[in-house]
Amino acid sequence: MPAFGQHRRRLARSLAVAGTGVAVVALPLFGATGAFAATTEPTTTAAAPATAYPDNLDGWIRESLDVMAQNGIPGSYDAIHRNIMRESSGNPYAINNWDSNAAKGTPSKGLLQIIDPTFAAYHVPGTAFDPYDPVANITAACNYAADRYGSIDNVFGAY
Fold it and tell me: What is the pTM of this model?
């Protein structure tokens, strides 16, 4: 093959490898006739993308369950959902300004109506330090319920 033809072929291979945006095995430019002639250096793969959760009650519960699993906190989707609906009707900004906690200056807040001292004591690292953050609220409340009742699954009333 003429020198000009070889140069164009090498350039086409280089562009094909560089322009795809995906990892490919590049054949050596001289004398390669098949995949067996490819380099044997290890390739790296990108880390798996983080799970994307919808910004709604279902997503908040599912994300909390994943955080809970990583931290050994028991609980089920159904029990979390049941307690959220009873405590806040799914409103992450719910606040109780009328009960005995509120009278003492520490109103219950968020999806699972947790007071600030309990939230601080049972906060799970890796979640926001904000009782109105849905995932942080659920996870801290489930951590508290696990400590006090064995699991959020065992909570069927105000706790």
Answer: 0.69
CA angle 81, 86, 91 (to 5 degrees): 75
pLDDT by residue (tens digit) across 69-111? 999 999 999 999 999 999 999 999 999 999 999 999 999 999 9
Q: What interhelical angle do 134-149 and 57-70 show, nearest 10?
A: 50
Which two structure tokens, joined as six digits, stand for 86? 């009873």
DSSP the chain: --HHHHHHHHHHHHHHHHHSSS--PPPPSSS--SGGGS-------PPPPPPP--SSHHHHHHHHHHHHHHTT----HHHHHHHHHHHTTT-TT-EE-SSHHHHTT--EETTTTB-HHHHHHH--TTS-S-TTSHHHHHHHHHHHHHHHHSSGGG--S--
**Tokens of residue 6, six digits:** 């070889």
- Nearest alpha carbon to residue 144 among 59, 100, 98, 87: 87
